[in-house]
Amino acid sequence: MDRVGSVAVLEDDLTLVFSALADPTRRAILEHLARGDATVSQLAQPFAMSQQAISKHLKVLEKARLITRSRTGQARPCALDTAHLDTAVEWIARHRKVWADRHDRLDAHLAALREGAR
After folding, report:
1. What is the mean pLDDT of each run of 10 residues along the chain (118 residues)?
2. Of 58, 64, 81, 103, which has the fewest beta carbons less than 10 angstroms from its beta carbon?
3. Do residues 88 and 18 make contact, with C-beta atoms less than 8 angstroms apart?
């Protein structure tokens, strides 16, 4: 658990996923891995940054369990692991429904107020 000011921040799985997804480089890496497994050097090619910098991004993605690494000889190819992305999608869908329901109730209430004002 980290502390931000006086507020405790839990590093739960969902927090790790959203934190990992907050960075555009990490999202681009996930998009690349959606097309197939890749090594660090293959993942680093489209970016103007070192393999070491890409490795740091991969560690964040690995900690969030959005990617896995295997060992094939000298290479350690990375693969996309969508299970935790699915958890994030489910969280967003659940909250989108709550927010949409609240919006609909507010809209109905405002319509009733407008009708009462006439």
Report:
1. 52 90 97 95 91 95 96 89 92 94 96 90
2. 103
3. yes
- The CA distances from residue 42 to 29, 38, 56, 65, 78, in Å, are 10, 6, 15, 20, 10
CA dist., res. 30 & res. 15, Å (int): 17
What's the pTM value of the predicted model, to 2 decimals?
0.75
The amino acid present at 10, given as its one-letter code, is L
Assigned token pair, 68: 């896995």
**Cα distance between residue 61 and residue 1, in whole Å:** 18
